[in-house]
Structures are given as C-alpha cells and as structure tokens.
Design a protein that fits this description.
Elements: H1 8-14, E1 20-24, H2 27-53, H3 57-61, H4 65-71, H5 73-76, E2 84-91, E3 94-103, E4 108-116, H6 125-139, E5 144-147, H7 154-157
Parallel strand pairs: 4-5
Antiparallel strand pairs: 1-2, 2-3, 3-4
Helix pairs in contact: 2-4
C-alpha cells in the first residue's frame, strides 16, 4: 500500500515480538483444533513413554489415540470458571498450543495439558501460558499450584 514505508510487523517478529492471545476454549468454536492438539500431545506422551520406559501406551489404553481423545473429549473440556479454565494459545492468528487450570482444592490449582506445538517452542510461549494460568488461578482463589510432570518433560521441569 505504501511502498516506501517499513513493515513494522516483520521487524517486530525479527526482534521476537509476536501478537499473542489466550483464548478461552469454547467447544462450539474450537473443537477441531482442540482435538488435533490433544491427539498430537497424547501421541508425543505415548512416544516418550515408549522411548523412556518401554511402555506401549496405545496397548494400555486399548484404543487408538484419536479414539481415546474422542472418548474423553467431555472430560478434557469439562473445566469451567471458577473451577478451571482451558486456554488456546494463538500466535499471529494461528493456534500454537493449549493449557488448562483445574482447581483441586479451595486454594490449590493444578496446571493441566500444557502443550506448545513444536514450531512455536523456544520463544517463551510456554512461560507466557503458565503465567496466564497462574494469574487466572489466583483470581479463582488459588494460592498454590501443582504441575504433574515426568522425567522426559524436561522443559516443564525448568519452568
């Protein structure tokens, strides 16, 4: 439109600044994307369990991962404020990950299902998601938080 003007959006990306949104999950609008993220997340976990513990997770659950996600979709999406919330991470208009908070006591929150797509890793989006979940958890009355992890979840252990 203005050929002699700088495109500041490209410069901002080069400097590591991105338009980031935390969109509350809505099953009516985000089901397809949420299912895809969960399939990728659970596939990664199953692969890691196989590599690190020689566990065949797919055999243990007795169904394919897409079948498992479909069968557990109601459980995966049951969090509603103030008992919990699910966010989709949107970067520059594209869904880049997810994270959730679930209250497990009057003042205790559990961070759940944090997953950032591989393309978006290493840019601080996981920390941004965690900070958002902690902020919302405090508003929901939580004063302490749990994060379940495993030895192969090395990034989660450094958050």
């Amino acid at each position: 439109m203005f050929p002699n003007c700088l495109d500041f959006s490209e410069l901002a990306k080069e400097e590591g600044y991105y338009m980031v949104e935390f969109v509350p999950f809505d099953l009516n609008f985000h089901k397809k994307e949420y299912v895809k993220l969960n399939i990728e997340f659970i596939t990664w976990i199953a692969d890691q369990l196989g590599e690190n513990y020689q566990v065949d997770a797919v055999s243990m659950i007795g169904q394919t991962i897409p079948e498992y996600v479909d069968a557990h979709l109601k459980d995966l999406t049951s969090l509603k404020p103030p008992d919990g919330i699910i966010y989709l991470l949107v970067v520059e208009g594209d869904i880049a990950g997810m994270g959730a908070l679930r209250k497990i006591g009057d003042e205790i929150g559990e961070i759940k299902w944090m997953y950032i797509l591989p393309f978006y890793r290493g840019r601080g989006f996981g920390k941004q998601m965690l900070n958002k979940l902690l902020e919302v958890g405090r508003r929901f009355g939580c004063s302490s938080f749990l994060l379940e992890t495993s030895k192969f979840m090395t990034v989660a252990q450094h958050i």
